[in-house]
Amino acid sequence: MPQIPTDHLEAASTLAVVISSKDPLLFLSDDLRIIAASTSFCRAFEIDPATVSGKRLGELGNGEWAMPKLQSLLTATATGSASVESYEIDLKRPDQKTRQLVVHAQTLDDGDVDHIRLLLAITDVTDMRAAARLKDDLIRDKAILLQEVQHRVANSLQIIASVLMQSARRVQSEEARGHLQDARHRIMSIAALQRQLSASPGGSIELRTYFTQLCQSLGASMIAEPERLSIQVTVDDSIVDAEVSISLGLVLTELVINALKHAFPDDRIGTIAIDYRSSGEDWTLSIADNGIGMPGGEDAPKAGLGTGIVEALVKNLNGVITLTDANPGTVVTISRRETSDVQADLSSAA
Q1: How many domains are there within the chain?
Q2: Cα atoms in the Cβ-side hemisphere of radius 13 Å centred on 165
Q3: Of the candidates 201, 283, 193, which has an alpha carbon nearest to the alpha carbon of residue 247?
Q4: Histidine kinase domain: which residues (predicted)?
C-alpha cells in the first residue's frame, strides 16, 4: 500500500482544523487566495461556503473584503517583513450595519515547504465597542450630573450660611449669636469643599487650594482688621479623597475659629499659621498662633462643641492631637502615622 506523504497529511489536518473551528478563520496562500474558510466565518459574514475556495480575499462576498491596506499587510506578512496583530478594520456591506473587526494573521507551516501559508483570525468587536461607548457616555453623563449637583449643593450651603448670619444679627443673646456664627463658619467650610469637588476630577481634592480658600473665607468673615490679624497657609502638593478632605477641612475650621476667638484679646496683633505635610499615608496638620497662649487653672475654658467636633473628626481620621505651648502662642498638631493609636488631648475650647 503506497505511503501518503507527511506534508499532505499535515495539510489535510490543517484544513480540517480550520474548517471546523468555532472562530472565524481563513487559510490563505501567499498570493491571498483562499484555501479554506471556517464554517463560523462563512456564517458570521453570510458567505456561501461553496463559493469560497480558490477566490482571492478581495473577491469574497460583494467585494467588501477588498481592502488595500489589509491586503498589503498580509502580503508583507507572507514575506516576513511585517506582521498583523490586532489590526482593526471596518467591514462595510450594502444595507447592513458596519462591523468593527480585529484581524490577526500569522504564517503557518502546514508541511508545504515551497509555499508560505497564512492563517487569518477575525474577531467581531462591534458589540463590545458599542458597549464601551455606552459605558463612556454613561460615565460622562454621570460626571456632568454630579458636577451639577455639587454646584447646587454649594449654592444651597451659601444660602443657608447667609440665613444663619442674618439670624445671628437679629438675636439678642450673645451666646446664641456665637453659636449661629460658628454654625455659619462650619457650613462655609463644607461650601468651600463643594466648590473644590466641582472642579476636581475623580472626587479628589488638592489641599493647598482648598485650605487657602477656606482660610480666606474665615478671615473675610471673622477678621475685621486685616492689618492686625492674618492667616498664613503653607501646604505641600497633597491630594486626598473627598471623605478625608471633609474631616480635615472641618478640623481646620474649628481650630482657626478657636484661635481667632481666644488667642488675640484686647486688639492684640498676631498671626495664625497653617501647615500641612504628608509622606505616603502619614501626614501632619498644625495650626499655630502667636497669641496669649493656653490659659490654665480657673481661666482655662471648658470643652465645648468645637472640641467635641475636632476630637470626633480626628478619631475618624485615625489621628493624634497634641497641644503645645509655643511661648508665645499655641500650636495644635494633628498627625497620622500608620502605626499610631488614636489619642486625643485637646484642652482649649472652640
Answers
A1: 2
A2: 13
A3: 193
A4: 248-340
Residues 61 and 205 in one domain: no
Half-sphere exposure for 342 (CA within 13 Å, toward CB): 10
Contacts of 252 (CB under 8 A, 6+ apart): 189, 211, 214, 215, 274, 285, 287
Task: Band the pLDDT of 349: cuts 50, 70, 90.
Answer: very low
Full-model pTM: 0.51
**Dist. CA 33–CA 28, nearest whole Å:** 5
- Are the C-beta atoms of 46 and 65 separated by less than 8 Å? no
Question: Quick check: helix, strand or coil at residue 267?
Answer: coil
User: What letter does residue 33 receive in the DSSP assignment?
Assistant: B
The residues, ordered by sequence, that sit 6+ positions from 211 with a Cβ below 8 Å of its Cβ are 233, 235, 249, 252, 274, 276
* Residue-level pLDDT at 332: 95
User: Looking at the predicted structure, is the pLDDT value of residue 217 above 90?
Assistant: no
The answer to whether residue 303 is domain-embedded is: yes
Residue 108 vs residue 207, higher pLDDT: 207
**207 burial via Cβ count (<10 Å: 0-12, 13-18, 19+):** buried
Assign 52 to helix, strand or coil.
coil
